[in-house]
Amino acid sequence: MQCYYKLNCGRHIHLEVLFQYYTYRGLIEGTPNKGMNRRLVNEAQEQAKDKLWLRNETPFLIQPLESPISLPKGYRYRLREDGENEPAKIPSIVCLATFQSQQPAKNPENHCSSLSIVWFQNEFALPIDPTIEETIRGIDWNALANDWDY
Question: Domain spans of the chain?
Answer without folding.
Answer: 4-148
